[in-house]
Amino acid sequence: MEGVLLLHKPIGMTSHDCVAKMRKLARTKKIGHTGTLDPDVSGVLPLCIGRATKIVEYLTAESKTYEAEVTLGFSTTTEDASGEIVSEKAVDREILAEEVLNVFSNMTGEREQTPPMYSAIKINGKKLYEYARAGIEIERPTRKITIHELILLSGINQDDKTVKFRFRVTCSKGTYVRTLAVMIGEQLGFPAHMSHLIRTKSGDFSLEQCLTFSEVEQLVEDDRLAESLISIGEALKYLPKCIIHDNLAEKVKNGAVLPLPEQFVHLHSGEPLIIYDENDTCLAIYTKHPEKMHLMKPIKVIKNDFV
């Protein structure tokens, strides 16, 4: 069994929990996820099974789309609704939609973001949330992120102390939406946190394509799980595609350096190029040779006689 399973991750499970459950259902250890979702977050979680674990990094690198709710009026330790309150300031003025839209416009594009203490990023061999749970706050390196689009999805809901509104964000890999909610609050002049989040897209994969665990369990019972998987080639269809003749397939399976087809000379070294055989089977990921520009070399062999 190999391919990508699009899981609708439920609230209350970590991404690792989802992988562990799928290993039991699919009866294989070779499963990996393509981007962590916090336990309180639901949505699109592509799981790579079998040989597809070799393409995890290419799916993880894709942009993500989320629908979130931000609450102005108080911030929390975890930057979401599960944390303890650390700062409060009643929203004592009217927040207008136009003001929020101006903030969204200013935040769109490339910018820097500091990951939250409650995150799985490792520093000195320990995850940040391990430091946070021990009451230790350490310096975190900022990272560059890209906010491709910010859209207001609701009206501005205001009571005596707080303001809530929903938004959709499409962003680059590594963006923390709960930190983005805090940043939005800062721009509006109030402490804030993310009060709800769902991932609606991961790359080209949408929530409508995803299966719940109940549906997966039924597919396993009906012995139809394999046919529900997206093929490796389909999962990588957004990347440049090179079809080779069968007489070259064995060389590709053995990781040989090959001549670079003329139509791909524009690629930069390091850019992936997907190699398919004449049966449209994904064999390997290649890239332009860094020194010999007329050649291409393998980054990863997906299919060979040994795997």
TrEMBL record:
Entry-linked PANTHER family: PSEUDOURIDYLATE SYNTHASE TRUB1 (PTHR13767:SF2), TRNA-PSEUDOURIDINE SYNTHASE (PTHR13767)
Gene3D superfamilies: Pseudouridine synthase
Domain of life: Bacteria
Lineage: Bacteria, Bacillati, Bacillota, Bacilli, Bacillales
Record's function text: Responsible for synthesis of pseudouridine from uracil-55 in the psi GC loop of transfer RNAs.
Active site: 38 (nucleophile)
EC numbers, comma separated: 5.4.99.25
Gene Ontology molecular-function annotations: tRNA pseudouridine(55) synthase activity
Record-annotated Pseudouridine synthase II N-terminal domain positions: 23-177
Protein name: tRNA pseudouridine synthase B
Pfam families xref list: TruB_C_2, TruB_N
Gene from which this protein is expressed: truB
Keyword Isomerase in annotation: yes
tRNA pseudouridylate synthase B C-terminal domain mapped to chain residues: 178-228
Protein family (similarity comment): Belongs to the pseudouridine synthase TruB family. Type 1 subfamily.
Organism annotation: Metabacillus fastidiosus
